[in-house]
């Protein structure tokens, strides 16, 4: 859920950057894509260009480095996160899907 936005940015869109916080990790993150938004009235947009404060979203995030996380349904303690920027908590959320594992 999008909680708050910095003064100089009022919309949340692909390319937005923030710090990803989960359990004891902190990592730089970029929003790659917005898949879906739901506004306060429950109206769902399947092809959103942006989100505003109060909306629920399904997004893809890209982290700078590998970070130990899990999906909320399998490992709730590893599946919660917050996005913060400029001293504000911008969004809170849960991890519903992870990319496939890469063979090293």
List the helices and strands and how they pair.
Elements: E1 17-22, E2 25-38, E3 44-45, E4 56-63, E5 80-85, E6 88-94
Summarize the structure in words.
With about 100 residues, the protein is mostly beta strands. It is about 0% helix and about 40% strand. The protein has no helices and six strands. Strands 1, 2, 3, 4, 5 and 6 form a six-stranded antiparallel beta sheet that branches. A hairpin with a 2-residue loop joins strand 1 (about 15-20) and strand 2. The protein is globular and about 40 Å long.
What can be said about this structure in brief?
By secondary structure, the chain is an all-beta fold. Helices cover 0% and strands 41% of the residues.
Features:
41% strand; 104 residues; mainly beta; six-stranded antiparallel β-sheet; 6 strands
Q: Roughly what fraction of the amino acids lie in strands?
A: 35-45%
Structure annotation, total helices: 0
Name the average pLDDT: 93
Oligomeric grouping of the chains: single chain
Order of helices and strands: EEEEEE
For the sheet with most strands, the description reads: 6 strands, antiparallel
The helicity comes to: under 10%
